[in-house]
Amino acid sequence: MSRTATGAVFLSALVALIVGPELGFGPITASSRADARPHVVPQATVVVLVPPFIPQPAAPPAPPPPPQAAAAPRPAATVATGDVWARLRACESPTNGGTRYRGYYQFSAATWASAGGTGDPAGASLEEQTARAQTLAARSDPYHQWPVCWPRAVRG
Fold first, then answer.
1. Rounded Cα gap, residues 110 and 35, in angstroms
2. Could you give the 3-state DSSP secondary structure of residue 11?
3. Helix %, strand %, coil % for the chain, to 5?
4. Are 136 and 150 in contact (CB under 8 A)?
5. Could you read off the pLDDT of 87-135 as tens digits, one per residue?
6. I need a labelling partner for 105 at 20 to 30 A (CA). Which of 20, 26, 61, 72 fits?
7. How many whole angstroms separate alpha carbon 115 and alpha carbon 39?
8. For the chain, how big is the Rg over CA atoms in Å?
9. Contact 85, 130 (CB under 8 A)
């Protein structure tokens, strides 16, 4: 330790010895405690402020959407001429060769049966398949039955 530090320690010890009893310092004995003064724990009061509940009015309901104009009806299958069926057949026949759709107009077995057909659609004559396709188009939307090829066939 340096001379300055040694002097500071000595001076602190001397002050504690002379003025110590007045400041609460005293000689260390067997009954001494680190803090012999009464220890008082301050009481804390916790205050929770809750803002008063003020009901807010509910937001008004959203206005109903404007009515949309009905879509223009598609042309009925009854106006389809022989050329439309030939174009539909040309569009449908080369596609889906070995799948569950069969015949010139690619009927599923359920659709073929619902149009009055029996057996395999591919085994029926062209005239019967065309008649069944026309029956199907007359009672349902041909755009739904042939979604890709019907618009092409109608356009020509």
1. 98
2. helix
3. 45, 0, 55
4. no
5. 998 988 765 566 788 888 988 999 999 999 999 988 999 999 999 999 9
6. 72
7. 101
8. 50
9. yes
Of 87, 89, 118, nearest to 104 by C-alpha is 89
**pLDDT (tens digit per residue) in 36-84:** 566 677 788 888 888 888 888 888 888 888 887 766 555 544 446 668 9
Which alpha helices (H) appear in 60-107, and where do they start and end? 82-92
Please report which helix (H) or strand (E) contains residue 111, including its range: helix 109-114
Q: Which two tokens stand for residue 131?
A: 């008649």
Which CATH number is 79-155 given?
A: 1.10.530.10
pLDDT of residue 3: 67
Q: For residue 45, what are the CA distances in angstroms to 42, 48? A: 10, 10
Total-model pTM: 0.48
Strands (E), the chain: none
